[in-house]
């Protein structure tokens, strides 16, 4: 017989169990969150700070010694490996670019001094042959005169303007003193410089064009041939003189100019750059070709070194990096041998803060 008078706990116990089962995860989660937050705060305030101090102490104590040990152990081998891998290719590239022939450097590498000696002799011969094209001579019956700036920008010219009505001035920048001085002799000066936006001097006798002097003619370029077609009167005696200072571009410009135009100036004055590249066979070949072309029509009457630059020695031959040269037309003048030494009384250092470069007789 069943009774309905069961104890209260008989019913409450299971209910509390079920309720506890549902509440327990929530309480555990809350407690876990509180515990994690407290641990994180403790870690940040105490453990992390202490850890940082200990790490810094270890770094200060251990790192220099470890780095030094690594350098002592690893660096020599790494450097040697880089040298073995990289240096041969770099040397080979230098050989191809600088020396007369690749065989000559291979001879050096193979300790064959006789072959190297021959190569150096050949180089010296080639350099001296080129430099002899610039042998100065004395012009008969005419004097030389300095035109333009007292220092850089001044050039020594033959003081003869009979029949000269046009001068071409290549490369102006901010110095037109040569142009003004020539204009004062009754010569109209046409200036060409693509690197400036306006001429440095306003003078009706100076006519500036923003054009580059190059190897061919177009809307932005002029060539020697195109300008001579404009200004050469085709008289037996040339009516045009040339001043040129175009920073190494003189070589390709003269090289590209047909021979029939080269001799159509009364005189050529200007800077010739890049003699420090004489060890480069391709440069030496072109320079020799250009100077030979010019010498067919002109004789050097004056040389001066630009002392802003240095001097170079190749195969025992010494010359300045940059030369200021005056060429006088063979068909207009007569010439004699000279014992003149350079620099002379008309010369002045381009950089007045340094002594001029002594060239002596400039005979090679």
The biggest sheet amounts to: 7 strands, mixed
Count of DSSP H/I helices? 8
Please mark out the parts with pLDDT under 50 across 5 or more consecutive residues, or reply none.
1-12, 93-118
Instruction: Provide mean pLDDT, rounded.
Output: 84
Kindly report the CATH topology of the largest domain.
Rossmann fold
| Alpha-beta classification | alpha/beta
Text of the CATH class of the largest domain: Alpha Beta
Euclidean distance between termini CA atoms: 144 Å
User: Rounded to an integer, what's the Rg over CA atoms?
Assistant: 41 Å
Strand adjacency order, main sheet:
6-5-4-9-10-14-11
Number of domains: 2
Summarize the structure.
The chain is an alpha/beta fold and 364 residues long. 44% of the residues lie in helices and 18% in strands.
List keywords for this structure.
single chain, 364 residues, alpha/beta, Rossmann fold, 7-stranded mixed sheet, two-stranded antiparallel sheet, 8 helices
Give structural notes:
With 364 residues, this protein is of the alpha/beta class. It has 2 domains: 1-98, no CATH class; 123-336, Rossmann fold. The protein is built from 8 helices and 15 strands. The chain has helices at 8-98, 102-109, 113-132, 177-183, 224-231, 250-256, 259-262, 281-295, and strands at 138-139, 144-148, 154-158, 166-170, 188-192, 206-209, 212-213, 221-222, 240-244, 267-272, 298-305, 311-314, 317-320, 323-329, 335-336. The strands form 5 sheets. A 7-stranded mixed sheet has the order 6-5-4-9-10-14-11, with helices on one face. A two-stranded antiparallel ribbon has the order 1-15. The longest helix is centred in the first third of the chain and has 91 residues, at 8-98. The radius of gyration is 41 Å and the shape is elongated. The termini are far apart.
């Amino acid at each position: 017989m069943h009774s309905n008078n069961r104890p209260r706990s008989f019913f409450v116990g299971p209910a509390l169990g079920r309720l506890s089962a549902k509440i327990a995860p929530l309480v555990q989660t809350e407690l876990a969150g509180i515990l994690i937050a407290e641990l994180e705060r403790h870690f940040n305030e105490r453990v992390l700070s202490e850890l940082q101090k200990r790490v810094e102490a270890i770094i200060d104590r251990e790192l220099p010694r470890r780095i030094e040990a690594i350098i002592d152990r690893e660096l020599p081998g790494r450097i040697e490996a880089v040298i073995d891998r990289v240096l041969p290719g770099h040397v080979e590239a230098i050989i191809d670019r600088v020396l007369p022939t690749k065989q000559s450097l291979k001879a050096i590498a193979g300790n064959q001094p006789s072959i190297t000696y021959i190569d150096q002799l050949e180089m010296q011969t080639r350099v001296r042959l080129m430099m002899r094209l610039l042998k100065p001579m004395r012009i008969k019956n005419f004097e030389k005169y300095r035109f333009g700036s007292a220092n850089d920008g001044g050039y020594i010219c033959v003081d003869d303007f009979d029949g000269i009505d046009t001068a071409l001035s290549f490369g102006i920048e901010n110095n037109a003193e040569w142009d003004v001085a020539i204009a004062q002799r009754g010569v109209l000066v046409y200036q060409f410089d693509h690197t400036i936006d306006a001429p440095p001097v306003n003078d009706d006798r100076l006519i500036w064009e923003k054009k580059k002097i190059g190897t061919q003619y177009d809307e932005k370029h002029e060539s020697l041939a195109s300008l001579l077609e404009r200004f050469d009167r085709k008289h037996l005696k040339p009516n045009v003189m040339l001043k040129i200072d175009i920073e190494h571009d003189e070589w390709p410009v003269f090289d590209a100019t047909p021979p029939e135009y080269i001799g159509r100036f009364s005189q050529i004055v200007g800077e010739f750059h890049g003699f420090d590249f004489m060890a480069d066979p391709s440069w030496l070949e072109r320079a020799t070709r250009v100077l030979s072309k010019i010498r067919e029509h002109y004789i050097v009457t004056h040389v001066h070194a630009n002392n802003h630059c240095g001097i170079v020695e190749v195969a025992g031959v010494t010359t300045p990096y940059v030369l200021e040269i005056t060429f006088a037309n063979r068909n207009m003048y007569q010439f004699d041998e000279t014992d003149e030494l350079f620099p002379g009384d008309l010369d002045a250092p381009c950089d007045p803060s340094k002594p001029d470069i002594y060239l002596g007789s400039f005979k090679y």
